[in-house]
Structure formats: C-alpha cells, structure tokens
Amino acid sequence: MILLGLICLTLIPNAFIAGLHDVPNAIAIPVRTRALTPPAATRLAAGFNTLGVLLALPLGIYLYTWFEFPQMEPRLLLAVVFSAALALFGWNLFTYLRGMPTSTTHALLAGFLGGTLAAAVVADLDFEQVLAMPWAGAALTLLLSPLAAFGLAYLLVFVAVRFARGEDPDAVNTTSRMTQAVSVGVTSLGTGLQQGQRFSFVLLTALVAAEVDDAQMWLPYAYVGFALMIGAGCLSGGWRIGHTLGHRLVEIDPLRGMVATTSTSALLFIGSLGFALPLSTSLTAASTVIGAGSNQRFTTVHWRQFRRICRYWVLTPIAAGTATAVFTLALSPLLG
Fold first, then answer.
1. Is the pLDDT of residue 328 over 80?
2. Measuring CA to CA, how many Å separate 269 from each of 7, 21, 79, 193, 277?
3. What is the tens place of the pLDDT at every residue in 209-232?
4. pLDDT score for 275
5. I need a labelling partner for 299 at 20 to 30 A (CA). Which of 51, 78, 119, 166 fits?
6. Which residues have a Cβ under 8 Å from the Cβ of 270 and sit 6 or more positions away?
7. Per-residue b/e over 124-154, b at no fewer than 16 CB within 10 Å?
8. Could you read off the pLDDT of 64-90 as tens digits, one per residue?
C-alpha cells in the first residue's frame, strides 16, 4: 500500500507536466500565425484536453486488457510502475526545460520495458515472457506515425495550394486561421484521449497489483483528478516547447499552418478514438509542421533544429528505459 500511495503521488505532478508538455502541440502554430491569442489558445486547449481525459476511461481499460505484464510478485510489479513514473516525470521535466517536444508515450513504454527486464533479473523470470509482450506493435506505431504525419502534411499542401490558387490572399489567410482555431480544440481532444489512456493504464496496473478490491471502480474519481491536473498544465501554455515548434523549427504561413494543425488533429483523433493506438502527440505535431513547412519553393525548415529534436527522440527510450531499470534494481532490496 505504501508503494501504491507513492505511485498515486507521483502521478499527480506527472499529469501536470504532461499537460505542460503536450499543449504546445495544439497551440504553437495557431499562436504563431495569429489565428488565436495566447490566452484564448491556452484556455481552449485546456478545456478540450480536460474533456478528452474524461472521455478516455473505456480506452484506458481496453489498453490494460491488451498490455499484460508477466507474472511476478505484486510488490515487484509496483516497484516497476513506480520507477517508470519517476523516470517519466524526470525526463519530461528535463526535456521541457530544454524546449524539446519529446513523446510521453514513448518514454512510458520504454520505461516499462526497462523496468520489466530489471524485474526479470531480480526475480529470475523468463525473458521470453518479457519479450513476448506487445512491445513490437506499440513501437511500430510510434515509429511509423511521424513518417505518416510528415507524408500526409506534405501531400495536403499540394491540395491546399490548388484550392487557394487565384483566391484573394487575405481571404485565404482568414480561412486558414479560422480552421486552425477549430483544430486547436480537435487536437486537444485527441491529446486528452491519449493522456487519459496512459494514466488510467498506469493507475489500473498499480491498483490490480496492490490487490485493491473493485479496482476499476476507483478510475472515474482518478480521471477527474487527472483531468484537472492536465488542464492546469495546459493553462500554463508550455511556451518553451511552443517557441521551438512555432519559431525555431520552421517559418510557416497561415495556409501551411492550417495543413499542419488539421493533419495533426485528424491523425490524433482517428488514432485515439477510432483505433485506440498509442500515438505520440509531440512526434505527430512536430512531423506535420516539418512536412507542411518543407513543401515550399524555398525550404524554410531549420534542419539543424530538426536534427536536435531527432536526437532527443532517439534518447527518450534509452534514457527512460535505463532510468526505470536502475530505479527498479535499487528498490528491489527494500521490498522484503
């Protein structure tokens, strides 16, 4: 029960930093192209993120039934979950301070893999059972989603330019900004659905491992807390990452900004609600910005900044997995 309490306490700041980390993915480009003012964008994003978290309860339960850990002593499983939550918070805080849009989903899955491998060493579990867990499907989704987001945004620029050809530039910019304003709500809703799935999966795993009676009964109360903390994080704006996406990564006009934001919202909403896929909001949003921005006569993507972001994307699973494994090994002697 002590471990369960520590996990719950760790999830509270994790929810706040998740909102802080992910809100720029929805508002950076609309604010950059003056589709919305910063206060209006943050309030809109916070409201729809909160709603998305509340709607994600059935998806989180589905994710738990799909992703099962190998049989291990309950306290050891709780140690893995606690270690993953600690590693996730530390990495998300570090990358936010660095202004890097990294993936919370990527870090969480890598943390669970590292922690489970460490638990297998401690408890002498069968490594084949660990490797047989559905890592491949989740990893493949996370790897392919940025490529799909880049390709979709790049191709949709051709369609948008064709429709805008011959139209009044002011009218095109006005329509593009209005569409971006709508996409803030849709993207934030999809982000909330993803965040709700992640946190409910972690909490439900901990509750079941702690042998809490009627574990699913506690989830609705927890969802309210997660939604409020994520909403509070969104209200802060996350401007360190927002400045990277909106100003340092690409020089983008309202039309291409519209393509980037609508591509992100479509992929997240369809992926989260339609297929319950573990998509990364950060990777998807950054990829659509690069895809839309690079489809110009003179490319305006700041490739040095893009390479820097890619390095953090590669480091995310390594850092989260290693940290979780170290924390799990350090906690194991204290489990009695």
1. yes
2. 29, 18, 33, 8, 10
3. 888 877 777 777 888 888 999 999
4. 66
5. 166
6. none
7. ebeeeebeebebeebbebbeebbebbbebbb
8. 555 666 677 889 999 999 999 999 999
Alpha carbons 288 and 147: distance in angstroms, whole number: 9
Quick one: DSSP state of residue 306? Answer: H
H/E stretch holding 53: helix 38-55
CA gap 18, 231 in Å, rounded:
10
CB 307 within 8 A of CB 277: no
Element (H, E) at 316: helix 303-331
Could you tell me the pLDDT band of residue 240, with boundaries at 50, 70 and 90? very high
Q: What's the CA angle centered on 219, arms 74 and 17, to 5 degrees?
A: 90
Report pTM.
Answer: 0.90
* 90-122 tens-digit pLDDT: 999 999 999 999 988 889 989 998 999 998 888
Q: Is residue 154 scored above 80 in pLDDT?
A: yes
Q: What string of DSSP letters covers 181-215?
A: HHHHHHHHHHHHHHHHHHHHHHHHHHHHHTT-TTG
Question: Residue ranges of the alpha helices (H) in 56-168?
Answer: 57-66, 74-97, 104-123, 127-131, 135-164
Q: Which residues pair with 250 in a beta bridge?
A: 301
What single-letter amino acid sits at 146?
Answer: P
The count of residues in the chain is 336
Facing residues of 301 across strands?
250
- Give, in order, the Cα–Cα distances in Å from 257 to each of 102, 132, 169: 20, 41, 15
